[in-house]
Structures are given as C-alpha cells and as structure tokens.
Amino acid sequence: FQPGEKTPHGMMVFPTIENALDHAPQPTNGGRVIIRITPGVYHERIWVPQNRPNVELLGLGKTPADTVIVSNHYAGESGGTFFTETAEIAGNGFIADNLTFKNSAGPVGQALAVSVLADRVIFKHCRFLGYQDTLFANYGRQYYVDDYISGAVDFIFGNATAVFDHDVIHVIGHGGGMITAQSRLSPTSTTGYVIRDSKITLGPGIGTHGNDEGLGRPWRYYARVVYLNTYMPKGILPQGFGDWGYKPNQKTAFYAEAGSKGPGADLSARVPWERKLNAAEIEHFQPRNFLRGSDDWNPVAEAAKLP
To answer: Any catalytic annotation for residue 296?
Structure first.
C-alpha cells in the first residue's frame, strides 16, 4: 500500500509513526484514534500534541521488545534536557500498549526516552529504556501497569500524579543519582509517585563497593514518593532516601514505604524523616483513589480492557 492509502479493512497505511499521528483524524463523541504499529525498530521522534486527544499506540508484536521507537538525543548536543525526548506526549487520554520507548544516548547526561505532559494517560506492557532521566512524568494523572523502566540517574522524575503498578524498575548503572526525583511544589498539591506491587532489580556491580542505589531524592522541596508492597534487592541504599545535600528538604519531602519486601527492605536504617503510613493513608495511595480526580477516572478498569 502507498502512504495514506486505505486497506480493504478501511485502515490507512503510513511509513512512520509520526506520519500517522500527523494525519490522524480527530476523535468524535468520546472515541479514540488507534494507531497499530507493525513490529520493527523505528528510528524517529514522535510528538502527540495537545490537540491530539485520545490517541492509542498499539504495538503488534508478541512482546514490547518487538516494536521499538528509538532516538539518541542528549542535553549536551540538543540545547537542554527537554529537547531530548524520543516521545513527547501532550494529548490527554493517551494510551500506549506493547511498545518500547528508548533513548540510546547512554551515559552522556540527560537523555529522555519519554516526556509525559498530559492527563488520563495509561502505559501498559511498555518498556522505557535510558540512562539519565529516562521517564519525565511531569503533568496530569498517569498510570503505568506491567511496564519495565530502566536507567541509572534520577530516571523517573517530574511532578505528575502517577502510579507505577506491577512494574519492574531496573537500575543499569550508578551515576550518583537515585531512582526517583519527584518535584511536588507545595504541601497541598495532589501530585506524587506511588510505586506499588513492583520489583526493583539491579544490574551487575550495582550495590557493591559502596554504590548502593537510593529510592529517591527531592528535585523540589515537597517531593512525594510512596513505595507499597515493592520488592527491594540487596544493594538498595540502607537509608532509602536522600535530601539532595540540602537538609531543609528533610522537613518538607514526603517519602514513605509500607510492605516493602526483600533483602533491601530493612527499615531499621532508613532516614528518620521517612513517613510512617497508617491504614487510611495506604488506602489513599491505591491507584483507584490516588488517580480518581473530580471526574472519577478509573485507570485500573480502563487498563484491564487493553490487550
């Protein structure tokens, strides 16, 4: 088929993902635009702008590794961190399923795989691969379920209201950062990260010779990260969290754990300013409650309908 030509089933064919996004119709009556992506490696950068709501990208491979979107831009050659992302998502209601988003720049500084600046976003069965600043989860409500996120330095960062549910978080190197760098701006803000029923894994050499990996440090004063029922291997920093070298952060940041498991889950050496959660607080941080909002969004139910 030629680019833009319709198949017998009424679907249009395009040579690149961005080309398909550029020509996608606007959804009507609450509908969705579904872009099905055949397996392969797509060397391109994609942008889902604000005027493209309810877009769904669906990888057609057997696993997320079969369909890869990759670029290699990094801050030092692109003019700053936020000019490096392989994919920028700004359209509300975005869904990605069964895809890999990768920044292949390596240990050369900030290099984003994905930047998410949208509300009611779901990533299911996706992989996010990078080194420093892999995933910029910065705005709106976001739900990550059954995903794989890898990096070395502050590789989940930003100020979204986000839940990471049944994910694997893999540390590939130790560059002086931590897993999360959340940036909540005020004590009354509803933003924060919840990492729930997930598993942290460490690459070779991490957790040896004093290079333990921390769970988070505050990019902004009121950073909030909560780990619930998450497996932590040997090599997790015994103190758990850091204050980014600024002691007043200890009074303002909200870091907490409940139900941590594994050899890295010993709470006895955690920083004394880590919060203790009661039963009501733990319930508040469950995905259905934390992401509900005034519109009663249920991302758990929406994600369950996806392949």
So the answer is: no
